[in-house]
Design a protein that fits this description.
Layout lengths: L14 H22 L6 H7 L4 H4 L6 H25 L6 H13 L2 H14 L5 H25 L5 H22 L3 H9 L10 H18 L6
Helix pairs in contact: 1-2, 1-4, 4-5, 4-6, 4-7, 5-8, 5-10, 6-8, 7-8, 8-10
Pfam families: TetR_C_34, TetR_N
Protein name: TetR family transcriptional regulator
GO molecular function: DNA-binding transcription factor activity; transcription cis-regulatory region binding
Length: about 230
């Protein structure tokens, strides 16, 4: 990865300059995470990529976890309207189409899946309470919009069903993506030994199957379902 263009990284003296610095840091972290995986990226890596000393970077973000938590929030905000639009295109009552929309849009966002796995394990644990509050409010808004879109197509579902669906979809997407992207040597091992074929995971079809079964189970157990 090349260095971000940073002609002058003296301390920002205005709100606009501070926003520009923060945007450059987030862009560098996003690129490094996509290239190496979130777990492998250090604060020093990010600082180097933007041409800053680590101590200077800490004027803008308290920890590396805060940087990636901000990126997770941004990905939630990008994903939610895309998913809502795809759910809106499904036919009324088509649980498989709703499940497919979740699986397709999540599988297409590998970095987001990586962040979804890291957020509860690491990213929310080394930041301020205020940073967690801000993040949770962003995700709450996204979840509410997605649950409303799902219930518009599957009205048998309760609000709690929708929240359970969201929890299942995002947690499984994070886990499946981690399993589906082992190191190259491990990936070669799985493909070379037929006995280990079960370890090869394709995120989209597996997620679609599980979420379809979940939604069909929820809808067919509701009173009045025909």
């Amino acid at each position: 990865m090349g260095l971000v263009d940073t002609t002058d990284f003296r301390r920002a003296r205005s709100p606009q300059a501070k926003q520009q610095r923060e945007a450059a840091i987030l862009d560098a972290a996003r690129a490094l995470g996509a290239e190496h995986g979130i777990r492998q990226v250090t604060l020093t890596d990010i600082a180097t990529a933007v041409g800053m000393h680590k101590s200077a970077l800490l004027r803008y973000f308290e920890t590396r976890e805060e940087i990636f938590l901000r990126l997770t929030a941004a990905d939630w905000q990008e994903w939610a309207p895309v998913l809502c639009a795809e759910i809106g295109a499904a036919a009324d009552g088509d649980a498989a189409a709703v499940a497919g929309a979740f699986a397709r849009t999540l599988a297409a966002r590998g970095r987001f899946c990586d962040l979804l796995a890291q957020a509860p394990m690491n990213l929310e644990r080394n930041v301020s309470v205020e940073a967690v509050r801000t993040f949770k409010l962003v995700t709450l808004s996204a979840v509410e919009a997605i649950v409303a879109a799902v219930r518009a197509r599957l009205p048998e579902l309760t609000e709690a069903d929708g929240v359970d669906l969201m929890a299942a979809a995002t947690s499984m997407a994070g886990s499946f993506w981690q399993i589906a992207t082992p190191g190259p040597q491990i990936a070669a091992l799985y493909r070379a030994d037929p006995r280990l074929a079960h370890a090869i995971v394709e995120v989209e079809p597996r997620l679609a199957r599980i979420l379809t079964a979940m939604l069909q189970g929820m809808t067919t157990t509701r009173p009045g379902h025909t």
